[in-house]
């Protein structure tokens, strides 16, 4: 069993090239430039220019010389950069660390060529696109579900009745509503869709990330104004702020709060439910009312 489990790893190690071979194939980068491993940057540069005068395609049209020049240029690119040269020297000294050396090579050659900001922007665009498609799909499904309710069909009939001037069809059976009537129903009837909001570009992750500095500044300004107005100056709460405190105290979503009757809102705000004692009294009254109805 142990031998069988080690077999895939052994095959992978056999198929993988040596650590230093990924840099200059089977050649040694220093040997290609005719240098020793302790050569300095000046010596590396001089060796490359000397060999390029001999093997550059413009100087030497021989195909073999052209192939050799490609190897020389690659070796120079590796050794002229201190970080890649350090990684190459490490690969020579530690050939057994195949996976680490391979990862370092691809990171050096491909990682720095990719602009992190471009990657971030691309990722945000992809995520935002999927987010918008998901939101649109969920919203359309919720709308179609609401359209099957009796309340929506009754509203269609009422609009059709108004459009025809009070003359309704006496034919039995279901009649497909006029397109204009259906469009009017879609525009006039406020669909009560809980847990699903109409898609908006302003709620996409990409847009929110771009507007993050503005959003942070807006929140800080709001917090400072709130602290100054209600904590320092001890002013009474404005209607909008009292509604906000009531809504958050009852954990009511913004859309649900908008749909509450104004008289009911006023009753809740007057109770000052953001104060602990008032909230406890309100909960007790609600429970008592629920028991009475049972």
Automatic annotation (TrEMBL):
GO terms for biological process: protein folding. InterPro entries: DnaJ_domain, DnaJ_domain_CS, DNAJC25-like, J_dom_sf. Coiled coil: none annotated. Keywords: Chaperone, Endoplasmic reticulum, Glycoprotein, Membrane, Signal, Transmembrane, Transmembrane helix. It is found in: Endoplasmic reticulum membrane. Its main location: endoplasmic reticulum. It is a multi-pass membrane protein. GO terms for cellular component: endoplasmic reticulum membrane. Residues 1-21 form the signal peptide. The keyword Protease does not apply. Residues 28-92 form the J domain. May play a role in protein folding in the endoplasmic reticulum. PANTHER family: DNAJ HOMOLOG SUBFAMILY C MEMBER 25. This is J domain-containing protein. It comes from Digitaria exilis.
């Amino acid at each position: 069993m142990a031998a069988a489990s080690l077999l895939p790893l052994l095959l992978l190690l056999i198929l993988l090239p040596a650590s230093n071979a990924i840099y200059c194939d089977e050649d040694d980068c220093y040997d290609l430039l005719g240098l020793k491993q302790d050569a300095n940057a000046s010596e590396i540069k001089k060796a490359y220019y000397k060999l390029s005068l001999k093997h550059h395609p413009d100087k030497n049209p021989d195909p073999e010389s052209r192939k050799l020049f490609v190897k020389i240029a690659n070796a120079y690119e590796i050794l002229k950069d201190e970080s890649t040269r350090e990684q190459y020297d490490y690969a020579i000294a530690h050939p057994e660390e195949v996976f680490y050396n391979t990862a370092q090579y691809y990171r050096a050659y491909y990682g720095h060529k990719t602009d992190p900001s471009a990657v971030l922007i691309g990722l945000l665009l992809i995520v935002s696109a999927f987010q918008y498609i998901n939101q649109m799909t969920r919203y359309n499904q919720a709308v179609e579900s609401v359209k099957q309710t009796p309340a929506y069909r009754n509203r269609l009939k009422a609009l059709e009745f108004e459009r025809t001037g009070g003359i309704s069809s006496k034919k039995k059976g279901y009649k497909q509503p006029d397109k204009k009537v259906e469009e009017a129903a879609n525009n006039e009837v406020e669909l009560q869709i809980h847990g699903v909001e109409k898609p908006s570009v302003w709620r996409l992750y990409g847009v929110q990330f771009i507007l993050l500095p503005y959003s942070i500044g807006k929140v800080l300004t709001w917090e400072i104004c709130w602290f100054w107005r209600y904590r320092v100056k001890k002013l009474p709460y404005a209607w909008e702020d009292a509604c906000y405190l009531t809504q958050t105290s009852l954990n009511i979503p913004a859309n649900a709060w908008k749909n509450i009757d104004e008289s009911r809102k006023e009753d809740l705000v007057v109770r000052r439910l953001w104060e602990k004692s008032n909230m406890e009294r309100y909960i007790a009254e609600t429970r008592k009312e629920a028991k009475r109805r049972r």
